[in-house]
Structure formats: C-alpha cells, structure tokens
Amino acid sequence: MRGLTRACLARTLTASLPCAFNGSKIASTDVGRTIMLTSLLYEARIWPLVWRRRLACYWAFGAREHLVFLVLLALLTLAVAGIIYFAYLDGTSIEPARMQALQREEIRNRRRADDLQCLAENIYFEARGEPLEGQYAVAEVTLNRTRALNFPHTICAVVHETRWDPSRRRHVSDFSWTELGVLSPEDGPAWKQAIAVANAVYDDLHPPLVPGALYYHASSVRPEWSRNRHAVATIGNHIFYR
Known about the structure:
- The chain is elongated, with a radius of gyration of 46 Å.
- By secondary structure, the chain is mainly alpha-helical.
- The chain has 6 helices and 5 strands, in the order αααααββαβββ.
- The chain folds into 2 domains: 2-17 and 31-62, no CATH class; 106-241, no CATH class.
- The strands form 2 sheets. A 3-stranded antiparallel sheet has the order 3-5-4, with helices on one face. Strands 1-2 form a two-stranded antiparallel ribbon.
C-alpha cells in the first residue's frame, strides 16, 4: 500500500514540478525574492494536486473494503441526529402546552383565593353576630347573585357593587359595610369561622338553606323593595327573599 502511494506521489511530482533553475549565481536581492515567491506559488499549486492524486491512489488500491463501514457510520450519525432533532421538536411542542396549563392553574388558584377572601369578609362584616345558619345564608345569597342575570358574575364584584341612589344623591352598596372604606377583619374565632363557612359554601359542601335567595334585610326594618319580593326564610335577625 505504501509503495503504491509513493509511486503515485512520484508520478505526480514528476508531472507537476517546475522547470529547474540554472545554476548561475544571483547577484540581486530582488531576483532572489522573485525566485522565492515563484517557488511558493508552485508549492501552492503542487500540494493540492499531490493530495488529490494520493487520495485517488488510496481509493483505487486499498479503500474500497472500507466503503461498507463508512456507509454504516454515516447512517448511524444521521439516525442519532434525527433522534435528537425530533426529541427537540417534541420538547418545544410540549413545553408551551405545559406552561399554558400551569398559567391556567395559577389563574384558577388566584381567582379562588380572591373569591374566598371577599366571601369570608362579607360573612364576617354582615353576619358575624348571627347564628351559624345565618352566616351560611348570607354566603348563599352572595353566591346566588353571581349566577343571576342582573348582578356581576364574580364574588368580589358582587360584594363591592355600587349603584346610584337618586334620593341620597350618591352611590350606595347592597352590603353597607363596603361603604365604610377599607376594613380588615380581626384575626380571631369569628374570622376563622367566616373562612370555614366561605370554603364550605364555595365548594358546595353544605346543603342550601335559602335556595334562590338574592336579597335579605334586617328584621328590624322593612324596605320598600321587600313588598315585591317573596320571602323564603327568616334566620336570626335577617329575612331572606327571592
């Protein structure tokens, strides 16, 4: 094999070498530089041809038996590259879906936390002095309004809803405690019970006491709107209406 390669190299060099320079002395430095540049140019022309001839000789006399190995190696490389590529595509398609699912879950959790906070506050400020059934009834009215056509559809919006009262010439609220500004429940048994009632009603873990009720008022007063409503229950100091 080495003999064949050398023979091919010898033929290449014989065919490609430049004409020899005569042996006369060169006296000028410029001529010497010209000769050096010319030699470099010939080297640059010769070596690609030498390596091309060498590879051709190697292929002709000794490399054909490696063809199967090279083909298998190329196929294996392509297979690995394909696996990596499709795995990357699957990862990029799954990751956005997973992120969207996490975002939706986070939105639901935030919505639940806000709903429960507003519902517990309404129970606490409207009915903390009422019996437990009265607190459940107030929570039911709050939730019933979110499902009715003429009310907002979130608990916080229902609790903090205001409307213009022409007789008073100001905005009023159905739940009067919201007109007093920002209030914070005191951390104690009454607040903890309001939270427990809010969770039970929100998750439908307590049987309804005032089904369909949308209004209530204290038994010590009789507002005009109550004449056009159907009373469904009286619990503690509150009368509940559809």
